[in-house]
Amino acid sequence: MNRQLILEDGTFFVGKAFGSLKDSIGEVVFNTGMTGYQEILSDPSYCGQLVTLTYPLVGNYGINRDDFESIDPAIRGFIVKEVSDYPSNFRNQWTLDEFFKAKDIPGIAGIDTRKLTRIIRKYGTLKGALCGLAVDKEAIIHNLQSTTLPTNQVQQVSTKTAYPSPGRGFRVVLVDFGMKHGILRELNKRGCDVVVVPYNITAEEVMRLSPDGVMLSNGPGDPKDVPEAISMIQNLIGQIPIFGICLGHQLFALACGANTEKMKFGHRGSNHPVKDLRTGKVALTSQNHGYTVTDESLSNTELEVTHIALNDDTVEGLRHKKHPVFTVQYHPEASPGPEDANYLFDQFMTLIKEAKEGEQLCQNV
Ligand SMILES: NC(=O)CC[C@H](N)C(=O)O
């Protein structure tokens, strides 16, 4: 069935439906990764967005049970050039069409996604609608221009109740703002005894779980939409080692008095070069963000910039000058993407170990 994508600037693209046939609106964002569509479509940080991929063939290895970053995708729709009807892979369990029908998510294929990406790159992120052909286009464009999209995405995707993921190692409280499961996998791989908690937990409740360290996850939307998390982090700083990823990084920066702003079209892909300013080393990283910590807001804080993006010099990593906290804007858990930055999870383990040894020293004197 023919369907269309209409953008708020009036541009429209006609293509073929796959998945659910429901209408959908959202912020249209592009990802430049060449593989990893399953991880991308199931990353909760895309909640409320219509995601397009610049790589032209999607679905060719199907959907499998192992590669989910969340079981119920939060994307509003998927926009691709060509969707494969006959995936080939030993792990394949669903075609993209079957999976999206089961999850009631609309997709559209046959779209020149590179042209769409060039429009977004030129004008910035745009709102868009996926709908049938028999619609009043002018009314939809007007609607898109006057609508503000919902701002409660973290609330939608964060876990409603705390749950354990046991291990024999360090006790980590993982605050779920819309967590990619890769983060939990990395902590479990290192033996951590993890408790995953909802986004609106207080610092007091976190400390009552007697953690050795706190991990702040990625998540969707504007970090300023979750003030309760900002004050929770403010109250934790100095009490416990903290590691933050993506939204967790932005929330930490806000908690320390820095500022964030929306980027023109963000960073979404699997090959974003990031430089570690202390070692000069460059890592290729997986990224998905539309907001950034502003460099100029850092001068009156106790934060040091540790990493920058080589494509546009934006802030990619921060460290607290006095307390054991570090955060990155990119995704060391990869999923999908290169594993260059995986060592940051080991760095978190070292930070926890040092903090515990420090505590022990204090107790012994
Ligand atoms: N992956 C993330 O955590 C994204 C953070 C935030 N929602 C942004 O778009 O910048």
TrEMBL record:
It catalyses: L-glutamine + H2O = L-glutamate + NH4(+); hydrogencarbonate + L-glutamine + 2 ATP + H2O = carbamoyl phosphate + L-glutamate + 2 ADP + phosphate + 2 H(+). SMART domains: CPSase_sm_chain. Its EC number is 6.3.5.5. Pathway: Pyrimidine metabolism; UMP biosynthesis via de novo pathway; (S)-dihydroorotate from bicarbonate: step 1/3; Amino-acid biosynthesis; L-arginine biosynthesis; carbamoyl phosphate from bicarbonate: step 1/1. GO terms for molecular function: carbamoyl-phosphate synthase (glutamine-hydrolyzing) activity. L-glutamine binds at S45, G219, G221, L247, Q250, N288, G290, Y291. SUPFAM superfamilies: Carbamoyl phosphate synthetase, small subunit N-terminal domain, Class I glutamine amidotransferase-like. InterPro entries: Anth_synth/Amidotransfase, CarbamoylP_synth_ssu, CarbamoylP_synth_ssu_N, CarbP_synth_ssu_N_sf, Class_I_gatase-like, CPSase_GATase1, GATASE. Pfam families: CPSase_sm_chain, GATase. The active site is at C246, H331, E333. Coiled coil: none annotated. Residues 1-131 form the Carbamoyl-phosphate synthase small subunit N-terminal domain. Keywords: Amino-acid biosynthesis, Arginine biosynthesis, ATP-binding, Glutamine amidotransferase, Ligase, Nucleotide-binding, Pyrimidine biosynthesis. Residues 1-170 are annotated as: CPSase. The keyword Zinc does not apply. HAMAP family: CPSase_S_chain. NCBIfam families: CPSaseIIsmall, PRK12838.1. Belongs to the CarA family. Composed of two chains; the small (or glutamine) chain promotes the hydrolysis of glutamine to ammonia, which is used by the large (or ammonia) chain to synthesize carbamoyl phosphate. Tetramer of heterodimers (alpha,beta)4. Small subunit of the glutamine-dependent carbamoyl phosphate synthetase (CPSase). CPSase catalyzes the formation of carbamoyl phosphate from the ammonia moiety of glutamine, carbonate, and phosphate donated by ATP, constituting the first step of 2 biosynthetic pathways, one leading to arginine and/or urea and the other to pyrimidine nucleotides. The small subunit (glutamine amidotransferase) binds and cleaves glutamine to supply the large subunit with the substrate ammonia. This is Carbamoyl phosphate synthase small chain. The gene is carA_1.
